[in-house]
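Researcher: For the annotation table, I need structure tokens for 4,5-dihydroxyphthalate decarboxylase. Please keep the output clean. Sequence:
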Amino acid sequence: MSQPVHLKAVLKTTALTTPLKDGSLKSDQVTLDFTEINPIHQAFAPMVREAAFDLSELAIVTALQAVAFKRPVVLLPVVVASRFQRGCLISYRPHGEVKPEQLRGKRIGVRSYTQTTGMWVRAHLVEDYGLATPDIRWITHDPAHVEQYQDPSFVEHPAHGKGLLEMLHDGDIDAAIFGNDLPEGDDYVPVIANARARDLAWAQQHGFVPINHVVAASADVCAREPAAVRAAYNLLAQAEHQQPTPEAGPRKTLSGFDALRAPLEWIIDACLEQALLPRKLSFDEVLGPADALLKGNMA
């Protein structure tokens, strides 16, 4: 009997990925050798720039940009992380609370213009308040993971080197978008009121929770070891199917082409409005290579 193929993998430890990491789910065709990277976004640039891993978690915006700029990765139809985003837009109470209707012409800080949380907040501002993305000044300090992408003209990169909190405290920006690093304390006020209720209503309307992270394989390993990548995807899909469905709202993980079609088409349109993509991507362009791979038809 042949030995399983070893694939170098980077996935954040979650309820979905734990069975793959502790061996509860395993395959005789593939062994996933995990590298722990924290925070997980530090794996994204090495993956899309140099295919540093065989299998890696990727932010959805990074993944779509990688497809658009023909980076050597194959996006797999599995979502490993989603979350509600409206509460991530924060103002600083000592400078006065900011309401969404007041944001036109204001300065909003975000770690990177391409950060997926930022994409979702901007999409909600467009949908809920009619605020076109170029109507706001976006202040950032990190570049895109996909180095071929260039930020649009309405994005600014100050040279002072301050972090988001410092800029917020100093009044350099009017509000800021935070990811997992949401500041705590009464001085930090969500710009969008009733964010949780709005998020739940949005998810019920659209049928999915805003997608954060998906999984991609390197194009090289897909060509060299297609059976191993198929086995890895099957493990991911099995783990995803085992995730409980919440009592309120759609699932926060997804797998399969049908499950991703509507969410991806919505996200692509939002990315176009924000100048995050150079052109409109089709569903087949995004997931066609994975479809061929999983069917055993990859050239």
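Researcher: And a one-line annotation?
Model: The mean pLDDT is 95.
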